[in-house]
Amino acid sequence: MSGTGKGVEKGAQSARSRALAVLRVRGRALAVALLPAAVAVVLLRAAPRAMRTAGAGTPRAG
Q: What distance in Å separates the CA atoms of residue 35 and residue 13, rounded to the nearest whole number?
């Protein structure tokens, strides 16, 4: 029973390391997946303001 404890501990440590690596990759993938939606929200929120201010100084035809 002299060497089994260290082997189990090393195996558990490598399993934790792999789990953390998977979580990091999944977090980055989620961020990349959500980025276009976030940009779209920002652009759509800014668009009505830009339309209101763009037509303020121009004379209307008709």
A: 33
Task: Tell me the per-residue pLDDT of 3-29, one tens digit each, with 9 for 90 and over.
Answer: 578 888 999 999 999 999 999 999 999
Q: Give the long-range contacts of residues 44-50, CB within 8 A, separation 24 or more.
A: none
CA distance 22 to 11: 17
Q: Is the dihedral of CA 55, 56, 57, 62 positive or negative?
A: positive
DSSP letter (8 states) at residue 57:
S
Give whole-number Cα distances, 59 to 8, 48, 49, 55, in Å: 79, 19, 19, 8
